[in-house]
Specification:
This protein has 169 residues and is mainly β. It is built from one helix and 15 strands; from the N terminus they run E-E-E-E-E-E-E-E-E-E-E-H-E-E-E-E.
Amino acid sequence: VAGFKDDTVYFCEPYFPHAWPQRYAQVVPYRIVGLGAYGNSLVVMTQGHPSIITGVHPDAMTVEKIPLPQPCVSKRSIATDGYGVVYAGPDGLVSIGPTRRAIVTDAIMRRDEWRKFGPETIIGAIYDNKYIGNYRSGTRGNKAMVLSQDDYPALSFLDMDARAMHVDM
C-alpha cells in the first residue's frame, strides 16, 4: 500500500497496512498530486515532472524522474489502462507506462484546443479500453470526451455531465 503527503511517498510494511516505517519513505522533486500503479511500478503525478517508483519490496524501491514536464492538473483525472497510467496535463492527456511516456492527445489536438476542455475539471475513468473524461468548460459545456488509444488515437464526445465516475469490474 502506498500513500503520500507533500513531496513524500510512504509505503506500508508488506501485509501490515497499519505499519508505515519511515525508512520506506521516498521523496520526489515536486509536490504530489496523485498516484497510479501498473505492474510493480507506482506513477507519482506531481505539480512538476512525474516520477516512477519501481520495486518489489518497500526497502528496495527506486525513484526515476520522468523527463516530461507535464504536471497533473486534475487529481480526479487519473486512471489506469492497458498502457499504464493516464492523467490530465496542461498540454493534453498524458500516458505513462512501460512503453509510453507521452502526451497521447498530441496527434489529435493542440495545447490551445486542449485548454478549452477545462483540463483541471476532468474526472476520468477507463471503460472498455477507452479513457472517459468528463469535463466542465465555459466554452465547450459539460460533456465527456472518449479517447481510444488503440492503433491510432480517436476522440469522440458524449452529452454527459457526471460529478463522479466509477467502473465496476
